[in-house]
Design goal:
Oligomer: homodimer
Number of strands of chain A: 0
Strand content of chain A: under 5%
CATH architecture of the largest domain in chain A: Orthogonal Bundle
Radius of gyration of chain A: 22 Å
Order of helices and strands of chain A: HHHHHHHHHHHH
CATH superfamily of the largest domain in chain A: Tetracycline Repressor, domain 2
Number of helices of chain A: 12
Shape of chain A: flat
Chain lengths: 238, 238
DNA sequence: CGAAAACTGTGTCCGATGGACACTGATGAT
DNA sequence: ATCATCAGTGTCCATCGGACACAGTTTTCG
């Protein structure tokens, strides 16, 4: 109804009526989004500002406002650009477990390649077509199981929450070389001084510093979730 | 090592050596944190700025910098203040399932009361003593199960990820009255126009608009997780 | 063919943000 | 009594997102 809201929807969902008169646009939504993604990939979402993105494209900050209503919408475009095409349906129709596992792994890879997606997707926002396609794929994998629609949505939220949690943890551990010393070292120092107050935590961390890393953590939670879902599905079927 | 990092640790973990000479401080870390929490609770984390918090306490913005190195540290204090005391150990020592379920519910309540905690706890940061105590409680519940330390950590990440996911979803749905129309209505409109491209999603959403709400969604995922953990624990024991 | 309309990109301005720094006072140890 | 120490203030700055008016360019219509 409100044209501001509908403009926001149209930006992500189209249509994009191309103007007939006037000079041809020198930029495009795609180029702008890509520039933003590039900055966010290398310097984080905090480094993405209007002037920064415009500068990357050798344009003025205000030029961008001809294409994008505001920064929130720019970030939305960046999310759609970074999330990429949803993975195609894999495996047979009945193998919901394999499909969901594969889906979660691919989602984890996307988050790993664009860690700022975590920051960009907190809070209420409007999903784009690609994001909805991702959701569609996961939900379609649960077709044929006896789960209700609400349960399928809940299972999806559960999966996404887990992947996000793993990525957040892996980002805190600092795979990008040096940040490791900025958060893991102070925490290790803390455990050395206050560790006595957290016996279970110290015990768990002592044996948690294993190889395998976050892929193992992702698979651990994933297997628990899929086991739990499997139990429910089997119960519904039997 | 760096005094900037150690100052950040000392802010959350103490000690706070009180100065002998000079005028007595008119403010305190606690009052500052509480003021910030109050603002964030009513207007969101975005409304929290140095001047805003200072104004709430009838002080100048720069006064706060006598107590807090910067805004990031202020937010860290707010998180510690809002997260509250960790729940005491409940139930018997062996009832890991009941304990974890209770723990997750209490964590969900904290997030529900302070939705901005979602925004404030993205990205790498230094945990405070209360936050670590929360973690300690959950890990302690898994004592006696045959899980390794790494597995217990993974289980914790899994639980937290789920609770966060549920809170994020419930915030998007908009429990606070009017925001519902700003994100659910456009999405419903989208499903009406583009719904044909997302058959599984439309089917799931159609039956998902049930009563029960997010408590049900929280319990659904929680039960799946606990079922999955139970299967692993039983396997290790047997 | 010429004029008007529509559109693009730019320059300038604004309020608010986080933060640096020098300064004035107040206080307590010596 | 003196003086180092510390609290709160005032001023200044770069940067942020964004509003607005303007000049230049291109297409359509009279």
């Amino acid at each position: 109804m409100s044209d501001e809201a509908s403009a926001r929807v149209r930006l992500l969902w189209g249509p994009h009526p191309k103007p007939s008169r006037g000079p041809k646009p020198a930029l495009s939504l795609d180029r702008i989004a890509q520039a933003g993604v590039g900055i966010a990939d290398t310097e984080g979402l905090g480094a993405v500002s209007m002037q920064r993105v415009a500068g990357q494209l050798d344009f003025t900050k205000m030029s961008l406002y001809r294409y994008v209503p505001g920064k929130a919408e720019l970030v939305a475009l960046m999310v759609e650009a970074a999330i990429g095409e949803a993975p195609p349906r894999t495996g047979a129709g009945g193998d919901w477990r394999g499909q969901l596992g594969d889906w979660a792994h691919r989602l984890g890879e996307v988050f790993a390649q664009h860690p700022w997606l975590l920051d960009a997707t907190v809070g209420p926002r409007l999903p784009g077509p690609r994001e909805l396609t991702w959701m569609e794929r996961a939900l379609a994998a649960l077709d044929g199981t006896g789960l209700t629609g609400a349960e399928r949505m809940d299972a999806l939220v559960l999966l996404v929450g887990h992947v996000r949690g793993i990525v957040a943890q892996s980002r805190a551990a600092g795979p990008a070389g040096e940040p490791e010393a900025r958060f893991l070292a102070p925490l290790a120092e803390l455990m050395r001084t206050h560790g006595a107050d957290y016996p279970a935590l110290t015990a768990a961390m002592a044996s948690a510093a294993q190889p395998g890393g976050h892929d193992r953590a992702l698979d651990f939670g994933l297997n628990r979730i899929l086991d739990g879902l499997g139990a429910l599905i089997a119960q519904r079927a039997g």
